[in-house]
Amino acid sequence: MEISGVTFRQESTELAGPKIIIEYDVNDPNLSGTSPAYVFVRYSRDSGKTWRLVPMDCLQGNGFDIVERPGHKQIIGWGTEQTSFADVNQVKVRVRGVAMARVPAGKFFMKSLPGGGRDDSKEITPEPDLGLFYMARCETTVSMYAEYLNEVGGGAGWNPRMANIDRCGIVQNDDHTYSVEAGRGEYPITYVSWYDATNFLQWCGLRLPTEAEWEKALRGGIHLDGDETKKKPNPKPERRYPWGDESPNEGGVFRCNYDGEEDGLAYTAPVGSFSKFASPYGVCDLAGNVAEWTLDWYSTSYHAGLDGFRMVRGGSWMAVPAACDAITGATQLPLKESSIMGFRGVRGPRPLH
Amino acid sequence: MRPLNRREFMKGSIGAAVTFAAFSQTAVRGANEKVIVGVMGLGGRGTQLAEKFAQRSDVEIAYLCDADTRRFARAREAVEEAQNKRVKLVQDFRKILDDGSVDVVINATPDHWHGLGTIMACQAGKDVYVEKPMAHNIWEGGKMIEAARKYKRVVQVGMQSRSAPYTKKAKEYIESGKMGDIHVVRVFNMMQHPKQKEVADQPVPEGFDYDMWCGPAPKLPYNPSRRWLNQWEYSCGPIPGDAVHQLDLARYLLNDIPCPKAVSHAGGVCSLKDRRETPDTQLALFDYGELTLMLEAALWTPYMKKTSADIRDSDRFPNWPFSSTKVEILGTEGFMYFGRHGGGWQAYDAQGELVRSEYGRQADKEHQDNFIECIRTRKKANADVEVGYQTVLLCHMANISYRVGNQRLEFDPQTQTFTNCDQANKYLKREYRAPWIVPETV
């Protein structure tokens, strides 16, 4: 998501104290209501030493959170403690955007059992209903994650395996900054634990998807325009894969990055490589490439002591084609860092559990 | 001799056909050669074992096997990264048995595959690490011993707590006589399980050889839930599946006491009324004459806690009253709390004064070390197949007492049968589904 011309100024007002004004341009012509950007602002008040997320609820304007149109954007923040500055010369502002897909409110077919069917707190209903949410069109990339590492600093969130150029590609420099290996920026980040994923997403103001959200984003609702209008029925509301029911390699066409090199890929693929086979909402790589952490726990009091497994969805570049479907999940301990697991973010209501 | 082809292999009885492979097996590996391993069953535990063994410099994982190919990736990624070498992925474990270069089969399948999987591996000349509970029924456990002895195989059962140094110290303390005579041992296994949800049967997912998964058990309609853990056809039940660790510890601390004279049982499905078959409440008394071993187990006790991760490998003790996996040893002159999972132990004298404390650590590594060492020395492993049998016997005695209406059952150690209940003897052996039949002669 290309964001340019970011400016920041602070103005005093007659009665209401200082206000901050951030302006920028986003020129992506594909921005729309169904494929918006999620825009978030982070700022430093100490010349870039430490950074914080600007809380969305103190902002006004047309350029933050879900942004549906390209063009010149303005964000205004009123003089709360967090967004007014004693020394404006020390202030730095960064505006970033993540390409999202809109998943309208409505019913869909949930075919898997959340938490493997073992979590007492979740209801299994054949046609659950979810409110409106937005899901990142692509898996979180190496370059996005490297920006996060560099801003947060201190070594948190990085591990040496990320330097593996075939499977990830972030190296730690001598001064504890991070560089992306040439050509690796658009590959999905791997070797991230569940905690790494959630920390990154909190940095953005996003969260992990629930299994239900993940599955709805893959299959589409019963009505693709949502249950409010119900004008666009989903031609395949019970589909097995994002593109339909054909196997990932049926008819010699490769629809996602799964095990083996016959799809031309030994390891991960750059995100969106199979955008022709995206979900009905345009979400890419839900099948294959990297399996994705979800918010759901797998309740395993059967193996109490190992409690705290999380569910991972979507198969990977190492999975058999059948494991890249809408229902297959795997359990993983949240500290696990693996070359076949990554994640993506969601902007939506607090999930009901 | 002409090698058998696959068709002939299938036609012959499983026992006879695989015996051939035992003769073609290469000699015992030298001390510097890697032990070559195939792993059967890639669930949580199987994946964990595969990764742990792959991290060893003296082991190479050559095969990963699961009836469900959708499970391959998680284990493969972990293993290939740990050993920096590719593995072969197979759905049919007989491909591992057929490969003469494989030394060891790790069997981490569901309970109903433990017996036959182990027997066939022994017949094929492989040493075996088999997960607990070792056997799905008593008779099959006996056949596992026969197979291990006949083919001179090392069989280690995944009851790793008995390899822990702190466990050994506790045994020595009891043997020193400081606690007097031991007449009562209480084994706890108090957990909290959710009720199962009613989930409709579904078509078998692509990539999953469900027939192979069912193996010796009946092929019931496929259901994506994990309700099979509570079905007798596939499971010994969630309580024995976990309590077997503490029962084994108790037996170890009591110098591997052999089978009891009788069992009584109380309990049943008291709380989790979700149409499960296996009980959620099991109180069993194992009668050894002057010693009584008590099992107190349930699946609905939220205040009882397993030893948490931060205590397991540290110098801390569990909160004993609410420790869900403790063993209590009652002597005429002293008392001991003993904790599984590296929980350590504490001994008290006749006045109730604390007189000895030993911290513990988990012993997965020691147990695996012992297995690899025994492969080289051909000695019996710490949790040898006979040990596994004697411990799983307690689980089955309790279950059978429950299944015949909580009757007290008397057991004949010579014939390994019940002497006062014909109905109970029907549960000594399962019905095997062809071709997955454990033969009378292994």
Task: Give a quick summary of the entry.
The complex is a heterodimer of chains A (353) and B (442). By secondary structure, chain A is mainly beta.
Helix content of chain B: 25-40%
CATH architecture of the largest domain in chain B: 2-Layer Sandwich
Per DSSP E runs of 2 or more residues, the count of β-strands of chain B stands at 16
Uncertain runs of chain A are: none
Q: What is the level 1 CATH name of the largest domain in chain A?
A: Alpha Beta
Labels describing this entry:
heterodimer, A: 353 residues, mainly beta, Immunoglobulin-like, paralog of FGE (formylglycine-generating enzyme), 3 domains, four-stranded antiparallel β-sheet, 3 helices, 9% helix, B: 442 residues, Dihydrodipicolinate Reductase, domain 2, ten-stranded mixed β-sheet, 19% strand
Describe this structure in words.
The complex is a heterodimer of chains A (353) and B (442). Chain A is mainly β and 353 residues long. Chain A has helices at 142-152, 194-204, 211-219, and strands spanning 3-12, 18-26, 37-44, 52-53, 59-61, 65-67, 71-78, 92-103, 106-107, 129-130, 133-136, 170-172, 178-180, 291-298, 309-313, 329-332, 341-342, 346-347. Chain A is globular, with a radius of gyration of 21 Å. In chain A, 49% of the residues are buried. Chain B has two domains: 6-158, Rossmann fold, CATH 3.40.50; 162-200 and 203-365, Dihydrodipicolinate Reductase, domain 2. Chain B is built from 14 helices and 16 strands. In chain B, the strands form two sheets. Chain B has a ten-stranded mixed β-sheet. In chain B, strands 3-2-1-4-5-6 form a six-stranded parallel β-sheet, sandwiched between helices.
